[in-house]
Amino acid sequence: MLHTLIGFFSLTVLILTGCTGGGSDPVVAEFNGVKVKASEAFAQVKTRLFDLEEEAYRTKEQAINEYVDQKILEMEAKKQNLSREQLLDKEAGGGAAAEITDKEITDFLASKGLSLTDKRIKKEDVKEYLKFRQKFEKQQQYVAKLREAAKVKLLVTEPESPKVAVSVEGQPTWGSNKAPVTIVEFSDFQCPFCARAVPTLERIKQEYGPEKVRIVFHHLPLPNHPRALPASLASSCANEQGKFWEMHNMLFENQAKLEDADLKEYAKKLQLDAAKFAECYDKKAHMEKIETSRKEGEKVGISATPSFVVNGVLIQGAQPFERFKEKIDRALKKG
User: Fold this and answer.
1) Which DSSP string do the residues of 78-100 spell out, in sequence order?
2) Which pLDDT tens digit goes with each residue over 251-297?
3) 35, HSE (Cβ side, Cα atoms, 13 Å)
4) What domains are there in the chain, each with its CATH number?
5) Distance of alpha carbon 17 from alpha carbon 5, whole angstroms
């Protein structure tokens, strides 16, 4: 019966485990004499596949770096007739550690949204952690010097992001429309990882300026963050009065306080027309625009925040400045 059905439909599906021609777009299946290319079969999952490939690459990259660092340290330690631990202590851990000041403790806690008023936090514990971090950073700097002297080069190939075409029309924008590099951000105001990306974007603004880089914001409030959508509405209402980015920063700085009263208070702090803002917010005037942003993300396979598209190249997660710099510099070279 099965053979009869297959014969009736003249259906033959061949799943291939290797490339069968087509260069960078191989044939991955056949049916009824029709060849199916990878670009066709994987169109709806290309960003997910890229996530998996990039995760595998980052895992390999970390393993390689850890192995190389260990070997470089062993070679240098042998040269100086020391153990690896003795070498690190001599070059990066020796001498008295700089005293950790009360201000450093306060500033560190503030950067995490914490303070010593929380009874769970003990000052001495924070001081010990900062001493440990200070020593660790010195060791990392020393290892970086050894790597530079050894001319370390990684020979694994980073996966190429699928080209992502995103509409930016009508979205909040920082920078010149003529800037050669456009960074499109999909973000959620209640997402803690999105908040971590804010300092990175600020550094990009400072180091490249509005003539080289344009930043465009797309709203992607996630369903598990109940105050993300109201925050997006508030930022859109602030945008009406020319203060989107000021509201953007205030919302990320106050992620634990995004109730209606909080959002209206932020509008007052930014010296917006309070009545106009309240009317816009209460009517949910920009709901359609936010939904358009969500659908734009869905269209290109973006469902997690933060996600960025740098001149068509996808970067997902709160990545360090260096990741963005690499993509931006490459785009600038291409012109």
Assistant:
1) HHTT--HHHHHIIIII-SPPPPP
2) 999 999 999 999 999 999 999 999 999 999 999 999 999 999 999 99
3) 11
4) 2-41 (no CATH), 68-150 (no CATH), 173-334 (3.40.30.10)
5) 26
